[in-house]
Specification:
Layout lengths: L1 H6 L4 H4 L10 H10 L3 H10 L16 H12 L3 H12 L6 H8 L5
Helix pairs in contact: 3-4, 6-7
Length: 110
Amino acid sequence: LVEACAKAGTHYADLAGAAGFPRQHPWLEAIWTYTEGNVFCAIEVMDAIGVDDVSLRLSQLPLPERVASMVRRRRERLTPAGRAVADAAALAIGRPSIAQLTAMTGQPID
């Protein structure tokens, strides 16, 4: 992740503390939060970030194609009922509860 940040114009010195471990940095915090710690997604997001982008706009950037492709492939493997739940979850704000997903899809809780 540190190497990917460097590609995006953030210098190693900005990321590494005295012990060589990453210290808190707006980009690292924003990417960790945005990708929920998924390393593959974090690297793809870092590759998609331009030098002029700012961490506050991270959620407004388009989803990297490799991540979108992965999500599409995984969605296609789901049953129709599973796709309905995944689609409902994608439309929800934040993490939807089981009750919200049930109401959105009309499917019973199993």
